Fold this protein.
Amino acid sequence: MNLEGCETVRDLGTVVRGIRTPIIKEGDNLREIVVDSIINASKNNGFEFHDKDIVAITEAVVGISEGNYVTIDEVVKDIHNKFNNANELGIVFPILSRNRFSLILKAIARSTNKLYIQLSFPSDEVGNGILDEEKLYRSDYNLGSVITEEQYRKDFGDWIHPFTGINMLNFYKELVEKEGCEAEFILSNNALDILKYTKNVINCDIHTRYRTKEMLSNAGANVVGLFEIMNSPVDGSGYNEKYGMLGSNKSTEERLKLFPRTGQELVENIQKDLKEKTGKTIEVMVYGDGAFKDPVGKIWELADPVVSPAYTSGLDGTPNEIKLKYVSDNKYADLRGDELKEAIKKEIRAKASDLKGQMITQGTTPRRLTDLIGSLCDLTSGSGDKGTPVVFIQGYFDNLSND
């Protein structure tokens, strides 16, 4: 077919590419690796750069490259310092995760003799279940009940996670006792119930951490948030001054990788390097867990304290979009085909700079750009063996009026 003289029609919207990089290790120059990997991918795969393209780097490789690690014994030392070597501790609202919390629990158990573990139910705050919800709703218990370990084992102890096949109460119990620490579990959604057992408390919740700590402190607890453990170095260890142990991941059986500290400097330097090499202003962000929910397993996913701990200024804010279906069905209900398309293009070009609260936006996603883009990146890169810790996005800020 001879296309000479034909008008070029744009038929692609947002395009997302996972970018393969070398395996990143502690001490590697991540800034250089990311920039070189993006440039090489462009040359080898025939795509060009544009203003407002997006480069996103998973937080895992940021933390790895900066060497932000802690050992179990370093965490133990920090807990000893903060609780004056207390013989008993309580923890409230830990998440149920082998990757995210098991090593933290191991450190807490190693730091004391008796541990009271208060779990929320029917699931933790990110959706990991601890019991059969249907059985709960048919029982005499309700969400305001306190369920002892004995009651749990009698009435709900046969529950296992549908994907992992594990009962996390049993898993945590065995882990704690292997450290020579006695463990007692309580299921309750009221943080204050832990004070019936001990005044020394670590609140482990992620997204409600400040409220829970204030509540416990006002009730007389000696409370430290998980975000305050390893918020400064111990014997030269890694640390995170803002998030402490939140956002950490298991590295080995005795070592954890913390949430990265140097992300903001990294994204700004990568943006600068890409500007020099491509002539384009490309936005850059670091992303962790995406904010989405699994419809079967009920896991919300966001075990990191934020989706994006660092990003360039062009990614600040929320989308400012109109709902095409609403405009088509209402304002231009009588139009069809190219006439409808051109009318909607004009509507988009004429839209106000801030459409919040207007009916024309109804049905658009009311979330921050970094949360939306970070979720897209997390789904693209996955958490396994894809080997694409960098994601390159084009056309995210475009709309139907952009040809």
